[in-house]
Write a sequence for this structure.
């Protein structure tokens, strides 16, 4: 068992969509809900415009519609949202570039 190998003070964190995997580990389950679009917005903006001298909200005014579509595509999954924002941060800040994404 993990406890025998790591000691009683150690913790192992398992993340999964499959509750059977978590229950096989005989662990306490914590269920997280997906982020709503409003909660998704700021992490997306911070990753997409990491060097914005002002609020990233100001930088995205012309991209707001496309940004909302991207957020919807990832259905509230935080990792997917920030990864997509990080990828977009490396692209040219133009609507044509974002449409290709």
């Amino acid at each position: 068992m993990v406890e025998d190998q790591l000691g009683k003070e150690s913790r192992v964190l398992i993340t999964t969509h499959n509750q059977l995997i978590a229950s096989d580990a005989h662990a306490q389950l914590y269920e997280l809900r997906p982020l709503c679009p409003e909660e998704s917005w700021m992490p997306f903006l911070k990753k997409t415009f990491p060097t914005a001298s002002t609020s990233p909200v100001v930088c995205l005014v012309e991209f707001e519609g496309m940004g909302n579509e991207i957020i919807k595509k990832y259905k509230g999954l935080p990792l997917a949202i920030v990864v997509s924002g990080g990828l977009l941060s490396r692209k040219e800040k133009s609507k044509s570039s974002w449409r290709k994404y």
User: Anything to note?
Assistant: The chain is about 55% helix and 0% strand. Helices lie at 2-6, 19-24, 37-48, 56-59, 64-73, 78-89, 95-100. The radius of gyration is 19 Å. Residues 37-100 form one domain.
